[in-house]
From TrEMBL:
Belongs to the DegT/DnrJ/EryC1 family. This is UDP-4-amino-4, 6-dideoxy-N-acetyl-beta-L-altrosamine transaminase. PANTHER family: DTDP-4-AMINO-4,6-DIDEOXYGALACTOSE TRANSAMINASE (PTHR30244:SF34), TRANSAMINASE (PTHR30244). The modification N6-(pyridoxal phosphate)lysine is found at residue 178. Gene3D superfamilies: Aspartate Aminotransferase, domain 1 (3.90.1150.10), Type I PLP-dependent aspartate aminotransferase-like (Major domain) (3.40.640.10). Keywords: Pyridoxal phosphate. Its cofactor is pyridoxal 5'-phosphate.
Length: 372
């Protein structure tokens, strides 16, 4: 049998290996010059300063902390996401209010967002790499902060503006299946200096080192103090060096992902049993997922057919509130019908930069054989 294709995977080449080994041979393993360099390299892509952290989940936790999310607050959240977008808000003590997505892009529907005096954050997700409609979300955010979970969309733009400059806070993941990788890793980006400073501090135990801000500034040269609890979410130098190297390759990743998506479209567009992803004219996505919809209740059968053929398809995602942890809190099925209908039909075909045309054609042939 042919080798099993994953639905996503990293691309690591000799330039990445060289960047990492150079740091391993140097003086710094954790917080050193490669951290600042990676944050600056990322800022050049996002148009706003960045704080590197240990995962996309850590980035969400940091972002909600920076936004001041706590007990009694509400966070409006898209359900069509990996559970971490909602879980991190719940971990801060907030009540998560799920709002439905748009049928075309599967991103948070501005018309479904209802804020109250308690809403602290409106959290959108750039599903599959397609930016949400941040212009429309700006008009409904009220007094809340707008957060972009951009785990899928680093390198993309909306109306010519880069992902990272579209919301008050943006979070990234650099997990191996994402658009670039540091192994585990993530970042928080914000143009607001106060939010950024709070994010930086939460990443490093909440430690206050600037004497001007300390309560006991005359304690001695060694002194640092904590005003609000934080965690250790520091991304090490070694991984930041990999991140900078991967960012240099992001234009090539973006182009290859677009070419694979186009090849799928050319090979599958005539099949009446499938609905293929589209993009808005305002969006220039980096496609993280190639998320098709399988019509007439045949998603599970196609999933099993492709898996049996050694093709590692995936389903992204079960609506976040279907997880038992939310069901046990009283969230009921039926809450977000557009997201639920999409989940019932969704299938992610393999998509990653090192996928060769012959593999794409093998996937297309296997899908066509299923519908034949
Ligand atoms: C991957 C992902 C996360 C979590 O990122 P990790 O780096 O795996 O912690 C959060 N949100 C979305 C939408 C993701 O795809």
């Amino acid at each position: 049998m042919a080798e099993v294709l994953p639905y996503g995977r990293q691309s690591v080449d000799e330039s990445d290996v060289a960047a990492v080994t150079a740091v391993l041979r140097g003086d710094w393993l954790t917080t050193g010059p490669a951290v600042e360099r990676f944050e600056a390299d990322l800022a050049a892509w996002t148009g706003a300063p960045a704080v590197a952290v240990t995962s996309g989940t850590a980035a969400l936790h940091v972002a909600y902390a920076a936004a001041g999310v706590g007990q009694g607050d509400e966070v409006v959240c898209s359900p069509m996401t990996f559970v971490a977008t909602a879980a991190c808000a719940a971990l801060r003590g907030a009540r998560v209010v799920f709002a439905d997505v748009e049928d075309e892009t599967l991103t948070l529907d501005p018309a479904a967002v209802a804020t109250t005096a308690r809403t602290r954050v409106v959290a959108a997700v750039d599903y599959a790499g397609h930016p949400a409609d941040y212009d429309a979300l700006r008009r409904v955010q009220g007094d809340a902060l707008l957060l972009a979970d951009a785990a899928h969309s680093v390198g993309g733009t909306w109306r010519g503006r880069p992902v990272g400059s579209l919301a008050d806070l943006t979070t990234f993941s650099f997990f191996p299946t994402k658009n670039l990788t540091t192994g585990e890793g993530g970042a928080v980006v914000s143009a607001d200096p106060a939010l950024l400073a709070r994010a930086r501090r939460f990443r490093n135990h909440g430690l206050v080192r600037d004497r001007a801000e300390q309560r006991f500034p005359d304690e001695g040269g060694w002194h640092q103090e904590v005003h609000e609890f934080g965690l250790n979410y520091r991304l090490p130098d070694v991984l930041c060096a990999l991140g900078s190297s991967q960012l240099r390759r992001l234009p090539a990743f973006k182009a290859r992902r677009a070419a694979v998506a186009e090849r799928y479209r050319d090979g599958l567009a005539d099949l009446p049993g499938l609905r293929l992803p589209t993009r808005r004219p305002e969006a220039d996505p980096v496609w993280h997922l190639y998320a098709v919809r399988v019509l007439e209740g045949r998603r599970r059968a196609l999933y099993d057919h492709l898996r049996a053929a050694g093709i590692g398809v995936q389903v992204n995602y079960i609506p976040a509130y279907w997880h038992p942890v939310f069901a046990d809190l009283g969230y009921r099925r039926g809450l977000c019908p557009v997201a639920e209908r999409f989940y019932a039909e969704q299938l992610s075909l393999p998509l990653f930069p090192d996928l060769v045309d012959a593999d794409v054609d093998r996937v297309i042939a296997a899908v066509r054989a299923f519908f034949a």
